[in-house]
Structures are given as structure tokens and as C-alpha cells.
Specification:
The structure is a homodimer.
Chain A lengths: L3 E5 L2 E5 L4 H14 L2 E4 L10 H14 L4 E7 L6 H9 L2 E6 L19 H10 L2 E4 L11 H15 L5 E3 L5 H9 L4 E5 L1 H5 L3 H4 L16 H12 L5 E3 L8 H5 L13 H11 L3 H9 L1 H5 L8 E10 L15 E6 L1
Parallel strand pairs in A: 2-3, 3-4, 4-5, 5-6, 6-7, 7-8, 8-9
Antiparallel strand pairs in A: 1-10, 10-11
Helix pairs in contact in A: 1-2, 2-3, 6-9, 11-12
């Protein structure tokens, strides 16, 4: 008899759905895997007004009407309280901070986080979440996350009631730091930072599919991320940072940073949690702690997965997925 | 008046000239930069017989008759004393050791260096040089060179009179290790390990042009390599490890490891030595210490360079050169 697994339909608290022609495909793909997503705002132009938030939500829903869509807006300037209220009304639950030049479409990022403290103060007042791409751009690539922690510390002291998410946590230093901070500071964990190290990018031939920011780092860093997740620490929940790039952008000349994990994220996670004998913790990680942190109801709909081998295609929606060409043990039914 | 610099025509004690149709172009390009090269044997099939050594030398000379060609052969098996004598007669001055799977065409490498100790003993007896690709393949990518040092230490103890070159030294640990070993152990230094760190490969967008083995590492590692060179330590001499790959292999899909530096190596070095106020040490580094170590006469022919800006083409001989598209200050006349 085929083995099956039933889960609460997962949430993805960090996803890139892109825009234009691609958006429809990526949104539909995401809706096959997740019941609810938090869409990141680094489109061109960025999501940074009440109108843009509304329009982006409508575009996503037009492609994937059953997907519950939570929005973010980009902190590339200061906002008035009225603008923030209007963005909240239009579906935004969080503001996303990108340091200048740190990843895809962050050339309009902020060079000094203190410059937007007036807006961050309003986020705290209105109980909006602050999502951080926590890397210090000027530092050596493997030190950028650790070097950013001083900013996180200062934010926590200055805005003690602000809910903060350190996105895509990737280093042992940051994991330990988040653990020690109060409960209003959490971290998202991607699938790829649970399973990759720098070896998977530059250890053998160059592997552009696995290239992303923050970089997967040393084995000890991966171990720390895994320990946080497999110990069931509720400060660490799923945000895939699934970030599709076309085959051309990913592998020819451009070397764009980002891993397209949405279509394979949950099957990979089931396998990882199963290997760790922690399947009992999976549901909270993918559909519990994140909703609790965002103060939204946990979902009730279920998703079912079958233990059935399948090979990940070389491209999905024209983008190279994580573990392209490899075989997975679990499949969404 | 234009500034000029006259140097002894440089030696390159580590170069990949490839084979077949490409060889002629790469050999001609090399002859424009160097008076003498030590050609590496990782062709397919490899250079691993007296006949192969003779044929490879003839092929290189057919394309570049004025180039002085020194040969290596691949340590992918044990050799008889007669074979070694015949290879020496045909132009080989060194044997090259590749650990299994560590870089381009090393799938026939040795998994246990002790397996070829009988041949290494003969190298010592015949005063042939042992060139090491010093990386432990199983280790984490940034630790591979350091993890290899135990093998180097054992080789030195077992074969105290053997001349050994740790090729393309890339880590502070290995630099310090080589410094402390006797004078019969030296290291080649590439141009790219003098100027790159991991940041230049994965720090911003992925930069396949700079991807190579051993990986450029942390700033402290680059600093150690530079210190060894700019202090005029005679154990450290130029071997570019110039390794051309086609644009397609380098940037699309394959992600081949190797930096094509031969056409730009000397102009870059002049600039680097000039910036360090060490131009007086350049000639020994590029045309002195290596010849001394290999017990061959220093060259006497001169090469002249002019201080004249030029832009490095996007490809040279169909391969992407180091610093493609960037502007250099010095140019060979």
C-alpha cells in the first residue's frame, strides 16, 4: 500500500512571484504547493505604494484565485502613517528592508537603515512586521550576515515592540543571535539553506542553480540552521525565498542569485524531516509558527503527499528548480 | 614621454595549453607573453608516456617555435625508471600529481598518494620535480588545501631530497607551511590568487570567469599569498595556471574551473608590483626564482612593456580571459 502523509496546507512566508508574463506561471505553481504566501516586493518598479500593493495582489489572484496572498512593500523610502494604513488595508502585513545592492533588484535599497527609522517607528506603532534581508553589503561575502547582526541588535533596542523577521537565516552566528532575542524576533528558513553548503555551488563544477544570497556557507552553518528547525524552535519557520530566474539569466553570463524552490519545497522538506525522524514537527514549521508570528489564523485545509518517486524536471515554468534532474521520494497528490 | 619597463622575458612554471585545434592558439598567445613555459599534462588522453611527452612538445613547438617548452607528465600510475629517463630525455622536467576528481580532467587521478610512492622515489633519485595539485578532494571546498598539507609533510619526510612544488598556493595555511619547509620545497603563485578572493566569484552576481580550483579564499589568504610574493621570498614564483575554457564551457551550463590569465598575466603583475612599490622584485618572481628552483639557466632575452591603457577583450582565442572587459595600465610592446 502506498504511504501517504497529510499536512495542513503549507504557508510560505517569503516568496518571489516576479511580475509581467512570468507572474501567472509562478503564482499558479506556488498555489499548487502552498495555501498562503507572503509575496516579496522587489519587482521593477517596486511595490512601494498603496496602489502598487493593491495591483500586485490583484495580479497574483487573477492567476491563482485560491491562493491566500499576503503582501509586503519595499522600504526604499520613508512613508506617512496614512500610506502605511492604506497599504495595510490593501493586504500588506510587512515591510521589507533590503540593504543597497545586496541582491536582485536592490539597487534602490537603503544605505543606512537609520535613515528609515521614522517609518520603522510607525511599523511598530501599527503592528506591521519588519522583514530584513540581513546582510551588510560591504563585508566579505561569507561574513555579511554576521556583520549585519549589529543592526538587528540596535533595531531591537530602539523598537522593543516591533515584530522583526530575519529572512533566510544562513549562519550559525545569526541562528544563535535570533534564539537569544525576545519572542518578537523570528527568522525564516529556506529549503536550500537546510540542505546546501558552499560546496554545492563551487565545490565541484560551478553550479549556478544553487547560487543565492545569502550564500549557503560552511557545514557548521547548515548544521545550526537544521538544529534550529529540527528542534522545533518556534522562532524558525518556513519562508522558501523561492526566486525563479530564467535558464538564461541563471546559467548564461548573468549569474543571477536565487533558487527556485517553490515547486519542490514541500516534498524536499518531508524527506528531510523524515530522515531526521522529526515528521511530527513538520506541520508547525510549514503551517504553524509562521502564522502565529504573523498573528493570523493557522490554516485548516489539508494537503496530501504520497511516497512516490519522481524526477524533478530540468526547468519548471522556464526556470531551473532546486535539485533539477534529481529524484525525490515524496510527491504532492 | 611614454614610460617603459624592461624585464627578463618571463617564465610561466604552470600553464595549460590544451590540445587539438585550440592548442595552436593558446601556445601562440603564451609565446607572446613568456619565453619559457612548463606545460601541464591534463589533456585527454593525458601526457603519460615518453611518446606522449615527445608528441606534445612537438605540437606546441609547431605552433610556437620560439617558445622554450618544458614538459610534465601525469602521475596517474607508476612508471619504470626507464620510462622516467625517456620522458626526461624528451623534455619532461616534472611529474604532476592530481588527487582524484579535484579539477579539470582529473577523473583518472590518484585516490591514495602512497600508491605511487615507488615512482616518487624514482623522481627523487633522478632529480625530477614533483608538482602537486595540493587539495584533499573530500574536504569542504575552502579547507581542501589545508587538509592536503599532511600529505606534503609526509612526502617531505619520506623523500628529503625530492624537489616539490605546491602548485597555485591559495591559503595562508599553505603559504606558512611552505615557508617553514626546506629549500627543496617551493610554491607557484598564480596571478588570480594574488588579486581575487571568493568575493570575486560569488560576492555579487556569479562570476564564472573567476571560478577556479583551488578557490580564491578569504582576504587573509590573499594577503598571505601577496606577502610571500612582495617580500621577495624565493620559494614563491610565477606559475599562472592559465587554463582557457571556451565561453560556452565557462559560462553556460558546465561551469568549468579555470582562469585564462596567460594573455594578461604580466601586465597585471606589473601593475600589482608597481602598486606595492616592489617593481624591483618582479623580475625574480617571473623570471628568476623558478628557473633557479628548476635548476635551469635564467633567461637573458628581454621583454619591454609600455605604460599604455588598453581594454582586455571579452574573449581571447575564444576563451574568456581574466579581467575581461577591464582596463589595464601596462601593455607588452
Amino acid at each position: 500500500m502506498q504511504q501517504e502523509l497529510s499536512l495542513i496546507l503549507p504557508d510560505d512566508f517569503h516568496i518571489h512571484l516576479r511580475q509581467g508574463r512570468d507572474l501567472a506561471n509562478y503564482a499558479k505553481s506556488a498555489a499548487l504547493q502552498f495555501g498562503r504566501v507572503l509575496a516579496m516586493p522587489n519587482t521593477e518598479p517596486p511595490i512601494n505604494s498603496p496602489e502598487a500593493v493593491k495591483k500586485y495582489k490583484e495580479e497574483i489572484l487573477a492567476a491563482a484565485p485560491n491562493l491566500e496572498v499576503l503582501l509586503t512593500f519595499k522600504l526604499n523610502k520613508n512613508y506617512t502613517e496614512q500610506e502605511l494604513l492604506d497599504m495595510k488595508k490593501n493586504g500588506a502585513v510587512a515591510a521589507k528592508y533590503y540593504p543597497l545592492g545586496v541582491t536582485t533588484n536592490s539597487q534602490d535599497g537603503i544605505s543606512k537603515i537609520e535613515d528609515i527609522y521614522p517609518t520603522i517607528e510607525l511599523l511598530e506603532k501599527l503592528d506591521l512586521v519588519l522583514c530584513l534581508h540581513g546582510e551588510e553589503p560591504e563585508a566579505f561575502c561569507l561574513d555579511r550576515e554576521r556583520e549585519f547582526l549589529k543592526h538587528l541588535e540596535k533595531l531591537c533596542k530602539t523598537f522593543p515592540n516591533l515584530r522583526i523577521v530575519l529572512e533566510h537565516v544562513s549562519s550559525a552566528d545569526a541562528v544563535e543571535f535570533v534564539k537569544k532575542l525576545p519572542q518578537n524576533v523570528a527568522a525564516t528558513v529556506t529549503v536550500h539553506h537546510l540542505i546546501l553548503t558552499l560546496n554545492d555551488i563551487v565545490g565541484d563544477s560551478l553550479c549556478p542553480q544553487n547560487f543565492c544570497k545569502p550564500l549557503p556557507k560552511f557545514p557548521k552553518d547548515k548544521a545550526a540552521v537544521r538544529e534550529a528547525v529540527f528542534s522545533g524552535n518556534k522562532k524558525f519557520f518556513l519562508g522558501t525565498d523561492s526566486a525563479p530566474h530564467s535558464l538564461e539569466k541563471k546559467e548564461c553570463l548573468c549569474g543571477a542569485a536565487g533558487v527556485y524552490s517553490a515547486p519542490v519545497a514541500i516534498p524536499i522538506l518531508i524527506e528531510e524531516f523524515e530522515n531526521e525522524n522529526k515528521l511530527n514537527l513538520l506541520s508547525d514549521f510549514v503551517a504553524g509558527y509562521g502564522a502565529d508570528f504573523y498573528k493570523i489564523p493557522r490554516q485548516t485545509k489539508k494537503a496530501t503527499y504520497a511516497k512516490e518517486e519522481w524526477q524533478i524536471p530540468k526547468t519548471i515554468d522556464g526556470a531551473v528548480p532546486l535539485r533539477a534532474g534529481q529524484t525525490l521520494k515524496w510527491k504532492a497528490k
